[in-house]
Write a structure and sequence with these properties.
Structural class: alpha/beta
Distance between the termini: 57 Å
Number of helices: 15
CATH class of the largest domain: Alpha Beta
CATH topology of the largest domain: TIM Barrel
Largest sheet: 9 strands, parallel
Strand content: 15-25%
CATH superfamily of the largest domain: Glycosidases
Number of domains: 2
Length: about 500
């Protein structure tokens, strides 16, 4: 496999980022330059009220306002995807018959907040031309930050035999086939009922190890009964290998089931950023393979993901966990050419470091996007002025919209809309009709003062006011999985 090179922070600054204006002159008759292709996502964490809602007990209008602000910030920054945590701990931020409402909405698990946050966010994303990915935690049952009582319909009360207490938290046991089936059913239910663009899980499989407060020794995950049942059934794997196998079985089944329901729904995983210490040689740190039983490299090699977002939460110049070295290694482990979109710890590092990481990733063959953790750090300050992360990134690396990369290995189709017939410009306003339900965004390009500019808007808006002085606009329709039409010129009626 061809070896990829990586960039230092200094050399990364020399890379050319996408621009609002074209880098080379083209006349209006020649048509616009090709749009930038890059996945630019936000993780919206709901566990512990990290990002949404800002606190428990907000009213419907306040919840709606916070969700709109998140979408608006994505639009203002020229980002194009939101990864929304809908199942933090066997409870939900959407209406479900399988599990109770999350306590992070109202303060009481099971209490209806008066709004379906996922449904509302899907509608807002369709207005904005933003992708929405539903983020699930498949095995966490009750986190340490939970304050209220578990609802009678929570799995810890309906099926306590499937739940294990480990240290300060409760977990579903991945070794129990009923657990895996339940979590798959929860995910499948959302894929069937909501118009989402992707399913996403993170790095929580078996729990990160906790220690006994009295002895200081690591606690062992209490799965003696399920492992004994496995051995009695003829299983031969040692316990650590069996645990990894349980996670593998779940990941493969999730990938296949999601695509059996909706072929154009992408499946993504964001594992811990290090597969194993020593891969590559200079890398040191936590061994996710050994301690949380996540053989994440295998999932990528087997093609059980459509996009892979390793959490590369370290700066470029930290040699034992170097961002470019780790990203380069992950890119070399990708025989099916799946999307690699590294996770960035935007809330921890300054904006310049995050800029360097984005530019570095852009210089690597196969890295076609990134996801920010977390949204809270990007909501601060004004996008167009000031010294916030949002303002810095908007001006330095996000100064034009981008279309998400295409995913040619999944079933997808380019919109069949007749752009010339269904779009019109009247009195400085672009209007349209008859867009299909699979349309995700409308990508506009127009020339002003001899320069090309771009905008991305949502298909459900039906109208968009053009900048003053614009009488011609080129339109592309972007469908599911980044499939896009050719640009078609629309001229104002005379």
């Amino acid at each position: 496999m061809q070896r990829r090179t990586f960039l230092t922070a200094a050399s990364a600054l020399a890379l050319t980022s996408p621009k609002v204006v074209s880098s080379h002159p083209r006349s209006l008759l020649q048509g616009p330059p090709e749009p930038a292709r890059e996945f630019r996502g936000f993780w919206v964490a709901t566990v512990g009220n990290i990002d949404f809602p800002s606190k428990q007990g907000l009213g419907v209008k306040q919840l709606q306002g916070e969700l709109r602000n998140i979408v608006r910030r994505a639009v203002d920054m020229h980002c194009n995807a939101i990864v929304f945590q809908v199942r933090p701990a066997c409870d939900t931020l959407y209406e479900s018959k399988l599990e109770p409402w999350s306590e992070y909405l109202t303060g009481s698990q099971g209490k209806n907040p008066g709004i379906d946050p996922l449904a509302y966010l899907v509608a807002e994303c369709r207005k904005a031309g933003i992708e929405i990915h539903a983020w699930f935690n498949p095995f966490r049952a009750r986190p340490a930050v939970a304050k209220g009582k578990a609802h009678p319909k929570h799995i810890s009360r309906t099926n306590p035999e499937m739940v294990r207490t480990y240290g300060s938290m409760q977990w579903l046991d991945p070794g129990d086939p009923r657990v895996r089936q339940h979590s798959l059913d929860v995910i499948a239910d959302v894929v069937q009922r909501y118009d989402i663009d992707g399913v996403h899980i993170d790095d929580y499989f078996y729990p990160y190890r906790e220690s006994d407060k009295a002895t200081g020794k690591d606690l062992s995950f209490p799965d003696d009964a399920t492992y004994a049942a496995y051995r009695q059934g003829g299983g031969q794997l040692l316990r650590d290998d069996w645990r990894r196998s349980n996670v593998d079985v779940f990941v493969e089944a999730m990938y296949r089931r999601v695509h059996s329901i909706k072929s154009a729904c992408l499946v993504g995983i964001s594992p811990f950023g290090i597969w194993r210490p020593g891969y590559p040689a200079q890398i040191k740190g936590f061994d996710a393979y050994d301690q949380i039983y996540a053989d994440s490299r295998k999932w990528l090699v087997e093609g059980w993901v459509d996009y892979f977002t390793p959490q590369l939460y370290w700066p470029i110049d930290r040699k034992p966990q170097s961002f470019p070295v780790l990203l380069n290694w992950w890119l070399s482990q990708n025989p099916h050419a799946r999307h690699i979109w590294p996770g960035l710890y935007t809330g921890k590092y300054d904006a310049t470091e995050i800029e360097y990481q984005i530019r570095t990733a852009r210089g690597m063959d196969g890295a076609s996007g990134h996801v920010h953790f977390s949204t809270k750090s990007l909501l601060k300050g004004d996008v167009r002025k000031g010294r916030s992360h949002a303002a810095h990134l908007r001006s330095r690396v996000y100064n034009t919209p981008a279309i998400v990369p295409a995913s040619p290995w999944v079933s997808q189709s380019v919109a069949t809309v007749d752009i010339e017939k269904d779009f019109a410009i009247t009195d400085g306003t672009l209007t349209w009709q008859n867009l299909s339900g699979t349309s995700r965004s409308i990508f506009l390009q127009f020339e002003t003062e001899g320069e090309w500019r771009a905008a991305m808007i949502g298909p459900t808006l039906r109208r968009w006011r053009l900048p003053d002085g614009i009488s011609d606009v080129w339109v592309r329709i972007v469908s599911e999985c980044g499939a896009a039409t050719d640009a078609v010129r629309i001229t104002a009626a005379t």
